[in-house]
């Protein structure tokens, strides 16, 4: 990944206090990199085994010299892991860095000690081998480090990758599914660089947008329809994606899986951690730009960290003269059984303000909530300051019951694990905490603006068997 010839200058626009606008300033000179599918093998116990090694590297990020980056099995970012519902997976995570890290499986339903949060730290040179059975719908999940207080830095240096789940019902749908051809991972991250071309990793918004680690990227489109798996893996920025000629696209899935039916729209907003699967239709010989637009004025996210006022060119889509036919988007996708608030055994309130949740900063030795296994709960989340926050819950995929008292819009109507909080609007979610209990090892809930998370905007919950009490979480990794 070392190649710094050419010396073309990326669209770098320093943040001056004004809104950033890179429209027409990005030269789209680089073919979009597509992360390789991770190799795997099936071991004697029938488990699909992956190897992930966090390591240091160097990457050409358009700075005229190599930029020091971190990656899994490479210089920057990581391979795409892929597994089917019902499969047992095992990942050997090797820490080749000079400091502790962890790997969290964002969006995955799994036992807490396999979750890869701050309690599953992996020391330098150590190997951590979580194993679990994939048992949730086909979805676009991702993985990234989650070390206590250091998540922003580790992610901004490049430790992140996609984790695609497949299932039988989805395999039978006529959706674009040829990875790298008409089914494209789109990992969007913003970066800023210092005078030496090195990444500024303080967790703020950046002025340069990377897709799959590529600066100024274009994608050659060869089919009439393309499925884009959009992942906002940025530390702080919220994007409002649309296409430069105003064409509409079809939303087919959100964080935790497909929607019951496709939804036609022209903008999709993703806060840090959120995903959306969209299908875009093309004609021959076109050039269209995937762009991030200022947030809707009727629902503004106006502060600097949200990036809500910026306009950013993200990815140019170039179509060839002959496009292979693609089937129409199916009218029905994946049914979603609605969780019933009448069955909730508990309602909890979470208020985010000043880098705290409910007036408390994260404490690894404190359990903030005890949930009983196989029960349903309603969580009401509100933010009380002028900063953008997104709320993420580990272990579960939840359903949004309401936003500011109103029913959720289409993009919040499916399975979700992360949701952007708007000013003065309580978001009510409902989740079922099934299958796994462990009184001693907590899951996290937190703001996914990574520097807020690192500063303490995070809490811990344990799932216990009925009647069981919470144990005492260890404050260090539970593996040697
Ligand atoms: Cu994407 Cu707790 O993390
Ligand atoms: Cu926040």
UniProtKB/TrEMBL annotation:
Q: Which Gene3D superfamilies match?
A: Cupredoxins - blue copper proteins
Where does this protein come from, organism-wise?
Phytohabitans houttuyneae
Q: Which residues form a coiled coil?
A: none
Its family remark reads: Belongs to the multicopper oxidase family.
Q: Which PANTHER family match?
A: BILIRUBIN OXIDASE (PTHR48267:SF1), CUPREDOXIN SUPERFAMILY PROTEIN (PTHR48267)
State the name under which the record lists this protein. Multicopper oxidase
* Pfam family membership, one: Cu-oxidase
* InterPro entries per the UniProt record, alphabetical: Cu-oxidase-like_N (IPR011707), Cu-oxidase_2nd (IPR001117), Cu-oxidase_C (IPR011706), Cu-oxidase_fam (IPR045087), Cu_oxidase_Cu_BS (IPR002355), Cupredoxin (IPR008972)
User: Which segments constitute the Plastocyanin-like domain?
Assistant: 59-168, 190-283, 351-464
Is Chaperone one of the keywords?
no
Task: Could you list this entry's UniProt keywords, alphabetically sorted.
Answer: Metal-binding, Oxidoreductase, Signal
Could you name the domain of life of the organism this protein comes from?
Answer: Bacteria
